[in-house]
Amino acid sequence: MTNNIPIGSPVRTQAIVNRYFVKAKKNLGQNFLVDQTAILGIVEAAGIKKDDQVIEIGPGIGSLTEQLLLAGAKVFAYEVDDSLPTILQNELPKKIDDQPLASRFKILLKDVLKANFKEDIGDFFDFTKPIKVVANLPYYITTPIIFALAESDLHFTSLTLMMQKEVAERLEAQPGSKDYGPLTISVQTEMKVKLALQVGRNSFMPRPKVDSSVVVLTPLKEKPAIEDHKHFIWVVKMCFSQRRKTLNNNLKSLLPDKTKRDELITELGVEPRIRPEDLTIEQFIKIAKFIPAK
Fold first, then answer.
1. How far apart are CA 172 and CA 258, in angstroms?
2. What is the spatial distance between Cα 117 and Cα 64, in angstroms, rounded to a whole number?
3. Partner of 204 for a Cys bridge, out of 31, 82, 138, 283, CB 3.0 to 4.6 A?
4. SS3 of 79, please?
5. For each of the chain's 294 residues, which pLDDT tens digit applies?
6. Which stretch of DSSP H or E encloses residue 78?
7. Chain-centre distance for alpha carbon 251
8. Which residues pair with 160 in a beta bridge?
9. What per-residue string of b and e applies to 77-89 under the rule 16 or more CB within 10 Å gives b?
10. Judging by DSSP bridges, how do beta strands 105-109 and 74-79 pair with one another?
11. pTM of the predicted protein model
């Protein structure tokens, strides 16, 4: 089998699976992307240019990694499956633009949710230059990863993430939608959300039960004035703690004093029976300012 065939092609993926006795691990949410059009679409959506610095999460057997490298990126990858680094080192191009693979690609066996980005990548990336994140996220931890990236102290120029279609819909949801919630608000206070492309379930091996979407998140040039982001997100989550209940009911644990709750509802200019999904981000900011931080 020639390595001139892209890793992300079904025939090359199957050859790698056979050669290394690879099995997609359900507990790690592994589904190998075998749609070259989708892979190149992700690279294009991320706007990858020569010498871009890219953090990849969960490179798998390297179908996306390969195309990021060929597009000129320098890639630092987080992976939790210790069987994959050997495959990546063997299957990725040995040289990119006459440079050895080791100068363009580094993999760290570590859960990205435990990442200390500045410490992990400090000897590989130049912090004075832009850093992008590109990832095919495991479905089962998509939301925690997005929260972690949004709240990271490392300033990314963009996040290009493939995720379950339903999660993507939550990211771009607007007030009044059933998809609107803490994840929506956390991301939209920090990032502009753009749906880049849809990827059907037939584009994966093994085939998942759901379709996927690729979303590009870019930092807002002007962010809402939030004094304490962690406190703000905590308040938002509490407001949505019982989604079917009214805002007034969900506020009881935050503001046991009814007079205070009435004062807040009046300040918001809403009806007491309004539900949290009908509030704007600006109204949630008012709520967070009204409720003292713990």
1. 34
2. 21
3. 31
4. strand
5. 456 799 999 999 999 989 988 776 655 556 789 999 999 999 999 999 999 999 999 999 999 999 999 999 999 999 998 989 999 999 999 988 889 999 999 999 999 999 999 999 999 999 889 999 999 988 778 888 888 887 787 889 999 999 999 999 999 999 999 999 999 999 999 899 999 999 999 998 888 888 999 999 999 999 898 989 889 999 999 999 888 889 999 999 899 999 999 999 999 999 989 999 999 999 999 999 999 887
6. strand 74-79
7. 30
8. 134, 216
9. bbbbbeebeebbe
10. parallel
11. 0.89
The tokens describing 98, both together, are: 């006459």
| Dihedral pair phi/psi, residue 77, rounded to 5° | -115, 140
Q: Where are the domains of the chain?
A: 10-219, 229-290
Residue owning tokens 């008012």: 286
CATH architecture of the domain 229-290 equals Orthogonal Bundle (1.10)
Assign domain 10-219 one CATH number from 3.40.640.10, 3.40.50.150, 3.30.9.30, 3.90.1150.10: 3.40.50.150
Give the chain's count of helices (H) and strands (E): 13, 11
